[in-house]
Amino acid sequence: MSNEADFRLLQNRIRETDMELKDQSNLLCNMLSAYFGYDYLEIWYENGLYVKIRDVPDSLSGNILRLRANVPPLGGHSEIVGDDVVDLAYKDIPPQGNQDDEDAVDESDELADAVIFLHSKGIVHRDLALRNLLLSQDGQDLILCDLESCYGSKHCPEIARAKDNGLPNQEWPYSPKSDIYYFGITIAELVLQNNPRTPWQYFGNFVPPPPFDHIFRACLKENPDDRPTLAEIKEMLESIVVSAE
What we know:
- The chain has 245 residues and is α+β, with helices and mostly antiparallel strands.
- 37% of the residues lie in helices and 13% in strands.
- The protein is built from six helices and seven strands; from the N terminus they run H-E-E-E-E-E-H-E-E-H-H-H-H.
- Strands 1-2-3-4-5 form a five-stranded mixed β-sheet, with no helix packed on it. It has a two-stranded antiparallel sheet with strand order 6-7.
- Strand 1 (31-36) and strand 2 form a beta hairpin.
- Helix 2 runs antiparallel to helix 4, helix 2 (98-120) runs antiparallel to helix 6 and helix 4 (176-192) packs antiparallel against helix 5.
């Protein structure tokens, strides 16, 4: 790349291609639940089908997992390796147990600490999301990444209004309160254990179950001033730990 402008153009083109592929693919359509494993994706669809898609070792993933081909018509529960489809026994959707809740609380608390630190340095992340979190190999440390603060999510109400009103990107009102909005969405992603980036995920049918639902709804208040502070969110998370004991 000759300069930063060329890099940004390439970055935007990659992002646009990624979203176009997701819009065209039927992989995540009409699903009840999904689980992303280390080298596979499990999906339970509304029609009762269970599909497991495996990555191909030492090669590019198959076209389906890369969103360059649709899931073909299936006659039953199936495993897809690359682009080859074989029959597979049904597997129940894993229940959300107490351990999952404890993990989500711990991870959300660590994320809150990371965002508090950023805000103390005058940094607004702009793109808090499950895709921008890393977990250490031992599962003990959560790491917040993608700190470029150039590209930001646009679903927060005040950001969406600025975009719709034609304001240039640099004038969109990202703030600690917009980070709170995206923090709520990230909690939902942590609890629900999936990350389907589709428009419906930010509305009524993407609400985590109790006891996380009240934190989610508080963070997604329309008025930024009505959203809780991160200190208040940490208190809510601590109350979940107390009530679970």
